[in-house]
Amino acid sequence: MAHILSFDFGTGGVRAGVYDTDRRQMLGQADAPYATRYPRAGWAEQSPDEWRTALRLAGRAVLEKTGRRTVDAVCTATTASTVAVCLRDGTPLSPAILWMDCRAETEARETARLTHPAMRFCGGSDAVEWLVPKSMWLKRHQPELWSKAEVVCEALDYVNFDMTGEWVGSRMNAACKWNYDSEGHSFVPEIYESLGIADLIDRLPQRIVPVGGVIAPMRAAMAADLGLENRPIVAQGGIDAHIGILGADTVEPGGMLFIGGTSIVQLVQLAEEADVSGFWGPYPNALTDGHWLVECGQVAAGSMLNWLAGEMFGLDQAGHAALIEKVAASPGRSEGLLALDYMMGNRTPYRDAALRGALMGLTLGHTRADIYAAAVDSLALGSANVLSVLKARGVAVDRVMMAGGIVKNAAWLQATVDALGLPVQVAREDNLSLVGTAVAAAAAIGVFSDLKTAARACAAPASELTPDPARAEWFSRTLPLYQEATEQLRPVLHQLARRQMGG
């Protein structure tokens, strides 16, 4: 028997859990928040010092709740790329640039001119969210900060350093966000040199450890901060949503993990390299050896619905819940409206950070519920668009596991299932990233022989939700209109984005 302490650093805070490998369940969870700040349009930042505080608060709380004074291993998942810039001793030199920050759009576009063979792993260019374009932006726009930086890293690396005192990178993050050659298991310094950031390689963590690998025992001081009487093994984790694949047991090709939260991430694994243009990847060995990971997703999702309900409609949590219930009861009320869900750009299949949100077809007769329903349907259409283009690329998806905040929003959940047009497994465990990190840690300390075996044994329970045939037909008819509107409005949305970023 082993007990695992898991951490999931999301956009709004960290959640901690204690997992029992014999009982195959999470014994308890606790949360601690931290703030996201938006100093300019398209910018989003967090404080690494607040991560440290939240880590200790949530960790102590869950250990006290579950009565644990010892655990066997610890593993963490975080958002990515959320980029921290600091000194070698971990002192932050600036706020961390959050994953959704799109200030590096120009730099991301510049990566498309590279012809290095390793660029095929990311589909030929980097996303604005990733560490490399953000590093380009920092060196170009904040050269003084860049010159002082001794470490440029992911939030995951920062947290693992806090726990162990060692700078270590995750093979998952390196493969998916750093232009690391995970097939050859090596950095590609010529890519950084071509992008004008040859000195980035000296600032990155040099030791790259695969998911489920051992980093080091926890620092004694950190164990004391958490109230632990032992120094557990710290195992390597990765990107929050991607680690959820282990909790969902969608490791094998044909399965898709769909996590709907602040953003949406859809993840599949392939048995071999394939053309998945429009998406991120395929990344060899990013999660499990011998598989190619493909990342799809939508940048704004639950964040858009919360913005609409809170900022635009002025609703509190109870008011938002009542609005969801009203829309769920009459899902067809958005007929005649069309929204585009690109509030912070598009991840896939357009890979376009300069797209922006839109709402069309409004009249004076429309209500808040109608507008909210249109927003919900735009998210569902965006998800259907992802699966439609995947299918066109020859990627078959026959099993979908859905989890995250979407599960708690009945209108959004059912609309998405209707738009996908196939039965979906809905996870009863609301945080697959916590389960996934427990799976990775259990494999690291030898409770299971490997990640696939551990995932199979510890998969979160789920129930099936089926599409409504009439609504599925409506989404099928509306998807071409969504696609056409995107193409027709692209020049206008790009011009508006340029004005915003220039302001």
From TrEMBL:
UniProt entry tagged with the keyword ATP-binding: yes
SUPFAM superfamilies for this protein: Actin-like ATPase domain
InterPro entries the record matches: ATPase_NBD (IPR043129), Carb_kinase_FGGY (IPR000577), FGGY_C (IPR018485), FGGY_N (IPR018484), Ribulokinase (IPR005929)
Extent of the signal sequence: none
Keyword Protein biosynthesis: no
Alphabetical list of CDD domains matching this protein: ASKHA_NBD_FGGY_L-RBK
Domain Carbohydrate kinase FGGY C-terminal, chain residue ranges per copy: 258-444
Ranges where the Carbohydrate kinase FGGY N-terminal domain occurs: 4-247
MF-aspect GO terms: kinase activity
Pfam families: FGGY_C, FGGY_N
Keywords of this entry: Arabinose catabolism, ATP-binding, Carbohydrate metabolism, Kinase, Nucleotide-binding, Transferase
Identification of the protein by name: Sugar kinase
Organism of this sequence: Mycoplana rhizolycopersici
Lineage: Bacteria, Pseudomonadati, Pseudomonadota, Alphaproteobacteria, Hyphomicrobiales
